[in-house]
Structures are given as C-alpha cells and as structure tokens.
Specification:
CATH topology of the largest domain in chain A: Rossmann fold
Distance between the termini of chain B: 38 Å
CATH architecture of the largest domain in chain A: 3-Layer(aba) Sandwich
Largest sheet of chain A: 8 strands, mixed
Oligomer: heterodimer
CATH topology of chain B: Rossmann fold
CATH architecture of chain B: 3-Layer(aba) Sandwich
Shape of chain A: globular
Shape of chain B: globular
Order of helices and strands of chain B: HEEHEHHEHHEHEHHE
CATH class of chain B: Alpha Beta
CATH superfamily of the largest domain in chain A: Thiamin diphosphate (ThDP)-binding fold, Pyr/PP domains
C-alpha cells in the first residue's frame, strides 16, 4: 500500500476489480482488453472466485445477471462490438434493478471497425444503449491511476443504486503502462442485499428478480422509480475536473485520453498568449451540465475534442444552451489528434469569434 | 378443513395458462419434487421468455426471470457463485432450441451442474402460434400456414439427442404429459435429474413433450391425442443418457 507500481491499464482494471470485492468475471475475448481476462484467469481462482470464458458476449452479460442476482459482485469487460452484444442484458439489468459492472475499452467503429482507440461509443454508453428508458452510470478515467479508482467506484455505485455502472476507457488507456498507487481510496463496503435470489433459506418468503410486468400501471411505477433513482444519481454522483477554467478565453471540453492532450495544449497556447481552459467530465452520465454551462458567462466559445465524429458535443450544447458558440474537433479511425492540430483549431475559432 | 393439496413449493395462485396446457402439470411436478427432496430453501429457478415467463407467481421459492434464451447463462452465473444451491432453468422450445441454442449447448458442454426442464410443445405459444424449431414436418402454424415445408423451412431439432452428445451432460430423458402414466414417469425423470445435480455429476435435462391446445387449434383432449400420435413418433420417449446413474 502506498507504493507506486508500473502497470498496464487493463491489468489495473482487473486488479482493481479484485480489490473492490469482485468475486466473478465473465467475458469473451476481444482486442484491446484481453489482458483483463488474462489477469483474472490467474487471480480469481486464487481467491476462491470464479473466472469463466463465456461462449459469447451475450452469455457473459447474462452470467453477470445471474451472479449479481445471487448477490455477488460480478464484472464483465469488452470492447465496442462486444458491448453492442451486451446491450440486451444491460437493459434487463436496468429493468430488474440489479448491480453490475461493465468495462468498455472503446475501439473505433462502426461495425468491426478497428482495434485502435476511440470514443465513438459515447452515445451508446450515455443515452441508454439498449431498449427502454434507462441509464447507466458511466465513468471515464484518463490515467491508469484513475482506472483503479474509478473501477472501484463503479462497484460501489452499482451496489448503492442497484444499476449498471460502466467504466468507459479507451484502447490507449487499456494498453498504456503507467505508475499506479493502490491506495485505500474508498470504503469497499459489504452492502446488505435482502433482495438477492440466493435461496429463500430461513428468509420466510421467496424473492424474485424480473424486468417484466404486463400491468401498465405497475410498469409505469417501475419507470417512475427508475427515473427518481436517476435523479438521485444525478444529484449525488457528478464528477469532473477543471484546469485553468477561470480565466479561459476558450473552454475545451474533453474526456479520457484526449483530455491529456489538452493539458499540453494549454501550455502551448499560453506561450501564444491564449488562455485555454479544460473542462473534463469524469462522469459522462450523469453529465455535469450545470457545472460546464456556468462557464458560458466568461468564455468566448466552447470546443469539444473527441475521438469520434461528434457525440459529446451534443451534451456540451445542452450545457451551454445557446449562450455561446460550441465547436467540435475530432478524429476517427483510431487516429489521435496532435497538440498542434487542436491548437490550430483553437486559433481559428478565436479569430472567428473576435471578428 | 380438507388437507391442503397444493405442494409447499407452489403458491395458491390460479394458473393463467389455457385449459389443457401442460405448464400447470409440469410446474406441479417440479414443486412436488422440490418438496420431496426438501430443497425449497436452497433452490433457485430461472424463468424463460414464453408463457411461463412469470412462473415466480406460482413457484414458492427464489426465481430469476431471464432474457429470451439466456436462462442457461443466468443459471451458470448463479450456480458458479453459489455451488451449494440447487439451480434449474425452465425453458420452452423457442427459448431453448432457437434463440438460446448457443447458451444451452455451451452450458451442457461445460458440464454446468444445473438442471433444465425443457417444455417442447412444437409451437410458439405466447406470441400466438408461430412455427418453432421443434414444429413437426407438415404441422400447420401461423408462419407455416400450409404445413412446415422441410424443403424451405428445415427440419425439427431433436435437442435432447444433441445435448446428450456433450461430454458435460450427465442425464437426459424425454418424457410426456399426455396421460397419467406418462405424467408419473415425467415426475420420476425430473426427480432423478435434480438428484444428479445434487450429486454434482454435471448437466441434466428433462425434455417434456407438452400440449398447446389453443395454438394447435384443438380441444384439450384432442391435443393429448395429437401429441401421442404425432410428437412421440418423432421425439422418442425414454432415457437418452445417464440411465445407469444411481442417485
């Protein structure tokens, strides 16, 4: 404890899950996150846990559904195309109100796409992804240290709110080696789960877990309860980071890997006399709309920089609500924008805004 | 006051199933077996998508409702983390033999130590009578209005025989519910399958040939006769694997 070790991002996600009390992992191989299963195939049996390579992503998420229904902390991980296959199960997890942790080490799409990093699953992660009115908690780390901290947080939040918490990393974070300190950052509590279907034993009544209800009023009640829960999550669990925001001429909004590039862009811009701010949402859902929107009073414009064709920009616009112009710059296909590309874009935007 | 004739593992709720449907019979058999084995407190059932989706209304023990076809994956999750509990899935032919084929085959191949009760009534009941993977050749359904044409709609799948080929499968038996003698045999098979699980021998499955009078367009009595005359010749009754297991 307290000692820094050099580790690969995917290995850290795996180690973090064990430290968070995860007792079982179900997954199917897909690049660029396979190291998670390599790590857990060794580590979980050693602590009496369960590692199982499933026949598909669909089976894996449903194994999580079963283990989690039984009251045990469970995780699955995958990358974009695999996460698409898990959406049915994630929707059932939302409807049945059971905890689950899903890791998406995002690659670039659509379709089979490529194995290089992407942020093109933002819509899927934050707007539902599967069928029905539901949300997942979505946390986006930007360092190997945060892969640890936010994985642990995903388990705690999933149990606390009985919903799916998704760790949304990307291929470069998963593959990156960086120093990490496994400090005791959060209490990993054993939360009582009286709802679990673990055998009625001496409980005196049977439990059932289900997302089906053909009675319209009862199903509406479930939906109202879910929405109330989502409001509660929104009130309590928003996370973000601000860098150089107070005096910023322009506010760059960026998360994950790209936000690290922006930190260097801030330094480059300062040499040119331009004050660039970075607003980094850490919780992509709930999104920090108000916290970002309040900067509309003092910056000239907003710029969303993403490894996508423009997805989070929609939430940036909702935050700013028409008060200032919102611009977008993104790369796709696994390309990462350079500091110079982003700085050139900033200069262009400020010239336009100053005209 | 007459003696309560309902097994402890069933609730008092009245079936929503149609007259002549086998679901009620099979539910009762499972409940009786659970009572006799005294496992009500340790059993966890996994409900399907299909007419029995809400069998937690009738079963008086813990139940997880699964997505269509995914019950074997859900059961795998439960049994792997709680190996001392008794776990079973209850699945129809669309659930097990169409959309969930991958899940059931791989659960069997892994030798997952749970039991499956497979209701084969050769039709999709809940969605109003479409052709199932187990629909017989020439059988009329809403989506095979001229009878199942095997040249374009393929052949019925004999799931039990296929699952028996997996080394992880310990016990397979096909039974029927069309008369009392066969119902008694069905109960015996379900009990043995549960005991195979108790002994930790691997995957066990009982395929129950069942009636769906509503979607077959027959009276309950004629449905029983139709099952006997049409389904049994195609789906041979009897033990397929694990006959000699002593449990």
């Amino acid at each position: 404890m307290g000692e820094k070790v050099l580790m690969k991002g995917n290995d850290v996600i795996a180690e973090a899950s064990i430290r968070a009390g995860c007792k079982c992992y179900f997954g199917y191989p897909i690049t660029p996150q396979t190291e998670i299963s390599h790590y857990l195939a060794e580590a979980l049996p050693k602590i009496g846990g369960v590692f199982l390579q499933a026949e598909s992503e669909i089976a894996a998420i449903n194994m999580v559904y079963g283990a989690s229904s039984a009251g045990i902390r469970a995780m699955t991980s995958s990358s974009s195309p695999g996460i698409s296959l898990k959406q049915e199960g994630i929707s059932y997890i939302a409807g049945a109100e059971i905890p689950a942790v899903v890791v998406n080490v995002v690659r670039c799409g659509p379709g089979l796409g490529g194995i290089l990093p992407g942020q093109c699953d933002y819509f899927q992660a934050t707007k539902g992804g599967g069928h029905g009115d539901y949300h997942n908690i979505v946390l986006a780390p930007n360092s190997v240290q945060e892969l640890y901290e936010l994985t642990v947080r995903c388990f705690n939040l999933a149990d606390k709110y009985r919903m799916c918490a998704m760790l949304m990393a990307d291929g470069s974070l998963g593959q990156m080696m960086e120093a990490v300190e496994f400090r005791e950052i959060e209490d990993i509590e054993a939360i009582d789960k009286p709802w679990a279907t673990n055998g009625m034993g001496t409980r005196g009544h049977s439990n059932y877990i289900s997302s089906v209800n053909v009675n319209p009023d009862e199903l509406e009640k479930l939906n109202q309860r879910l929405q109330a829960k989502y409001r509660e999550v929104t009130k309590n669990e928003i996370m973000y980071e601000e860098v150089n925001c107070d005096n910023a001429d322009i506010m760059v909004v960026s998360y994950g890997t790209t936000s690290r590039i922006i930190k260097n862009v801030i330094k480059d811009a300062r040499k040119m006399g331009i004050n660039v701010g970075l607003f980094r949402p850490i919780s992509l859902w709930p999104f920090p709309y108000d916290e970002l929107g309040k900067h509309a009073s003092h910056v000239k414009a907003f710029l969303s920089v993403e490894l996508s064709a423009g997805q989070m920009i929609d939430d940036v616009r909702l935050s700013v609500n028409g008060k200032k112009n919102c611009y977008f710059y993104g790369r796709t296909g696994g390309n990462i924008p350079s500091q110079k590309e982003i700085l050139d874009e900033i200069v262009k935007i400020l010239e336009k805004e100053d005209r | 006051m007459p003696e309560r004739l309902v097994p402890k593992s069933l609730t008092d709720r009245v079936w929503h199933y149609c007259p002549g449907c086998s679901h009620g019979i099979v539910h009762r058999l499972i409940a009786e077996v659970i009572d006799e084995l005294e496992i009500q407190g340790t059993v966890i059932g996994v409900a399907p998508v299909g007419c029995a989706y809400n069998n937690y209304e009738y079963f008086n023990f813990d139940i997880i409702q699964a997505a269509h076809g995914r019950a074997p994956a859900v059961a795998t999750g439960v049994k792997r983390v709680l190996p001392d509990r008794m776990v079973f899935t209850y699945q129809g032919d669309g659930d097990l033999a169409a959309i969930g084929t991958a899940e059931i085959i791989h659960a069997a191949a892994r030798g997952e130590n749970f039991t499956t009760v497979f209701i084969n009534n050769a039709i999709y009941g809940m969605t109003s009578g479409q052709m199932a993977p187990t629909t017989l050749p020439n059988q009329v359904t809403m989506t095979s209005p001229n009878g199942r044409d095997t040249s374009s709609q393929g052949f019925p799948i004999r799931m039990s025989e296929m699952l028996a080929l997996q080394d992880g499968t310990a016990f397979v038996e096909r039974v029927s519910t069309h008369d009392v003698r066969h119902i008694i045999q069905a109960k015996r098979a379900i009990k043995k399958a549960f005991k195979v699980q108790q002994a930790g021998l691997g995957f066990s499955i009982v395929e129950v040939l069942s009636t769906c009078p509503t979607n077959w367009g027959l009276s309950p009595l004629k449905a029983q006769k139709w099952l006997e005359e049409n389904m049994i010749p195609y789906y041979a009754l009897g033990n397929i694997k694990g006959k000699d297991i002593k449990v």
